[in-house]
């Protein structure tokens, strides 16, 4: 039954004020609810919640990913808002102008103030 419901994402932040500036101001995600311990944003039919944490996230893996129809346009818009895509040049992953060819999708990543990796993907 869960397969018919949107799933929410929960990220950790050591500084909710910086996180709010990133998600609400730079990414322009609408704030759904907010208190001293968490801020929830809407994105499409899903909810992204950032909760306060003493330690933040310890790993660099992608925490959430958006599925878009025009990755280049999304990255151009993000750059205009001061958000830069991450660049990678490893044996497993290489980006060109912030975009990686991953077979069936084009992918890009941005990072929030706490280093949470956020993916953006466009199907081919």
Question: How would you explain this protein's 3D organization?
Answer:
The chain has 124 residues and is an alpha+beta fold. Helix content is 17%, strand content 38%. It has 2 helices and 9 strands; from the N terminus they run E-H-E-E-E-E-H-E-E-E-E. It has helices spanning 16-26, 71-80; strands spanning 9-13, 31-34, 38-43, 46-52, 62-67, 95-96, 99-101, 105-111, 117-123. The strands form 2 sheets. The protein has a 5-stranded mixed β-sheet with strand order 5-9-8-7-6, covered by helices on one side. The longest helix has 11 residues, at 16-26. It starts with 8 loop residues before the first strand and ends with a strand. The mean pLDDT is 94.
